[in-house]
Amino acid sequence: MNEIEKNNYLTEVADNIVKLVQNAKSQLATSVNSIMTETYWNIGKYIVEVEQEGKATAIYGSKLLTNLSHELTLRMGKGYSRPNLNNMRKFYLRYPNCQTVSNKLSWSHICELITIDDDLERQFYENECIKEKWDVRTLRREKDAALFLRLASSKDKEGILALAQNGITYQTPEDIIKSTYTLDFLNIPQMTMYSEAELEQKIIDNLQLFLMELGKGFTFVGRQYPMTIGNVTYHCDLVFYHRILKCFVLIDLKTNAVKHRDIGQMNMYMGYMATEENMPDDNPPIGIILSKEKDELLVEYATYGMDSNLFISKYELYLPNKDELKRLVDKIIEEDNHEGQME
């Protein structure tokens, strides 16, 4: 073995050892997280089942956690504040079986999830955290933006239950479309006048956050995408490609209510992309007109008989009213239950 071969061999051996150590550290971190999370769950169980005699409210009042926090902090140091003990207690109450999340999510994730009262909503965010490997920052943003409620508000009861149990699926164009997109990260004040070009530029400046709002699978292709038809060149505002559905996604921005001519224009863009840009294994393109306002009746008539892959969605520049969305989702479930009882 010559000197070069020896060096290459040494590098390979070192690489393999580094991988072994990194894997061991990763497994150790996972194991430590799982053990600590289960310990916090057991502390919560002890507080509820022993000190509270199985009741959800402490029999000694709020002073129980305060006094317990002082005692534990004196003995073991930080980590046992009253809010943290209350989180442990809520963890036990929210998750009767801690194995559901103890070896899959961090304590920081769990502290965010247990603030959600609704079981279906909490289950959705839990599944998305595990499936999509959300960090805590992403979880907080999607919670604040009411992702579950926005998606659920456009479904029936069966769809809401499936969303909670399975998370977001990506099998049809409808799966990647939201009825309303929240663009609060653009930081445009509500009463400010702005043009479509300015809105587009703001989105480009915040492209990473816009991609997060669109959802999984989107890759950016280009802006003002040129399409020459006859002797005229048209431009679609934003073009993406969806890696899972294997299709182009075209987005046109409208700062006012969508008009019938906007719908016809998007239909033309979709026809162009399907004919001129699609590869043999690409699926038909999806078109989204993202508008500030939307006349449902006009949209219904203007899209009559048109491509079902053409969608008109609204955008808003501020976080949605979660209470109103919650009432709407609850109403959908209640009405579905009522109809089932009538049958």
Structural topology:
Blueprint: H1 3-51, H2 63-76, H3 82-94, H4 107-113, H5 119-132, H6 136-144, H7 147-152, H8 157-166, E1 180-182, H9 196-205, H10 207-214, E2 218-229, E3 232-242, E4 247-257, H11 260-277, E5 286-293, H12 296-302, E6 310-316, H13 322-342
Parallel strand pairs: 1-6, 4-5, 5-6
Antiparallel strand pairs: 2-3, 3-4
Tell me the span between the first and last alpha carbons.
Answer: 82 Å
Uncertain regions spanning at least 5 consecutive residues: none
The succession of helices and strands, N to C, reads HHHHHHHHEHHEEEHEHEH
Q: Structural class, judged by helices and strands?
A: alpha/beta
**Largest beta sheet: strand ordering:** 1-6-5-4-3-2
Measured by DSSP, the beta-strand proportion falls in: 15-25%
Please state the CA-atom Rg, rounded to the nearest Å. 26 Å
Main sheet record: 6 strands, mixed
Number of extended strands: 6
Shape: globular
Q: Please give the share of residues in helix.
A: 40-55%
User: What is the number of helical segments per DSSP (H or I, 4+ residues)?
Assistant: 13
Mean pLDDT: 88
What would you note in describing this structure?
With 343 residues, the chain is α/β, with parallel strands linked by helices. 54% of the residues lie in helices and 15% in strands. The chain has a six-stranded mixed beta sheet with strand order 1-6-5-4-3-2.
